[in-house]
Design the sequence.
């Protein structure tokens, strides 16, 4: 299993194509909000969830997807889903 830092690095690669605020992306932390800070629109959040599913071979249900609003919450959900595999 990847460490939290490795998960963040993988998540950054997934998120990068959708980021509208490059400066915020350079300073990404677990508290970074995908919509407010990175200016990612909600349609692209769905794309990110699909990319995360493919990258980790996990399934993200709608409830989890709705909670995936920050880097930290995304890491939490990915870690939980990987543990359930």
Sequence:
């Amino acid at each position: 299993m990847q460490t939290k830092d490795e998960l963040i690095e993988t998540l950054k690669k997934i998120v990068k194509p959708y980021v509208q605020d490059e400066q915020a992306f350079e300073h990404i932390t677990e508290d970074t909000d995908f919509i407010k800070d990175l200016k990612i629109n909600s349609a692209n959040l769905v794309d990110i969830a699909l990319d995360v599913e493919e990258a980790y071979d996990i399934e993200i249900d709608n409830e989890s997807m709705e909670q995936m609003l920050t880097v930290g919450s995304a890491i939490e959900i990915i870690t939980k889903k990987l543990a359930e595999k």
Notes: The chain has one domain: 4-84.
